[in-house]
Specification:
5-stranded mixed beta sheet; 7 helices; 229 residues; 33% helix; binds cytidine-5'-monophosphate; two-stranded antiparallel ribbon; alpha+beta; globular
């Protein structure tokens, strides 16, 4: 679980994963969601380098069905994931990578990703259709293209992989000057087919201040209706 981002687009303050959502840090929600899926044995969190001990203490207090370990994250998301991969025991053969910044991911989505990998896919991403028309722009903010919207998807996490495929992609990409913004992007570079499954609107990433308002509202609705959270 990459959780080492600074969260600058959310405004100044604590690193994003440690910001409060409904009274608990986002990271705590994300960890509970993974553990609640019952298909995750071990969660490795890549925490901000200066907060590793704080995160260890915070997660140590949670009652979870999964084991937890905490490592120091890196300068980029790709780096943070690579560091977390190094902490995996040798008997792990399926790996999910899940952004701490997607704290409200429904456990059913996690289970669907795991099932797709267990059925034989080397790489699986949950995705939703995009609602806006997307423009590609050039160096001077001029539009250079309009991809067919019906073919575009916004991808979410958890993304699921055969451990060997993901680790090989990270090993090859180590030191690249253009780090990938998701893990599927890395394995694509290796020519691996990435399968898309239906994502979930509640697996959105908390990035901007408005996302935090939406997340609070989703959580309040879940609590009012007796759901998770
Ligand atoms: O920056 P972005 O929104 O793509 O971050 C997605 C996830 O990657 C977040 O959970 C963030 O904490 C994590 N991240 C990280 N290490 C970094 C940058 C981002 O673990 N250096």
């Amino acid at each position: 679980m990459p959780a080492a981002g600074r969260g600058e687009r959310l405004g100044p303050g604590t690193p994003k994963a440690l910001r409060s959502l409904g009274g608990a840090p986002m990271l705590v929600h994300a960890v509970h969601a993974l553990a609640a899926s019952r298909s995750v044995d071990l969660i490795v969190v890549a925490a901000p380098a200066s907060q590793v001990d704080e995160v260890k203490a915070m997660l140590g207090q949670q009652e979870l069905a999964s084991d937890i370990s905490v490592v120091s994250g890196g300068e980029t998301r790709q780096d943070s994931v690579a560091r977390a991969l190094l902490a995996l025991p040798s008997d792990v053969d399926v790996v999910l990578v899940h952004d701490a910044a997607r704290p409200l991911v429904p456990p059913e989505l996690i289970t669907s990703v795991v099932s797709a990998v267990r059925r034989g896919a080397a790489a699986v991403v949950p995705a939703v259709p995009v609602v806006d028309t997307i423009k590609q722009v050039g160096d001077h903010d001029e539009v250079v293209g309009t991809p067919d919207r019906s073919r575009l998807r916004a991808v979410q996490t958890p993304q699921g992989f055969s451990r060997q495929v993901l680790q090989a992609a990270h090993a090859r990409a180590d030191g690249d000057t253009d780090p990938a913004t998701d893990d599927a992007g890395l394995v694509e570079r290796d020519g691996v087919t990435v399968h898309v499954i239906a994502g979930h609107e509640e697996a959105f990433k908390v990035t901007r201040p408005i996302d935090l308002i939406l997340a609070e509202a989703v959580l309040a609705r879940r609590r009012a209706t007796g759901g998770l959270g």
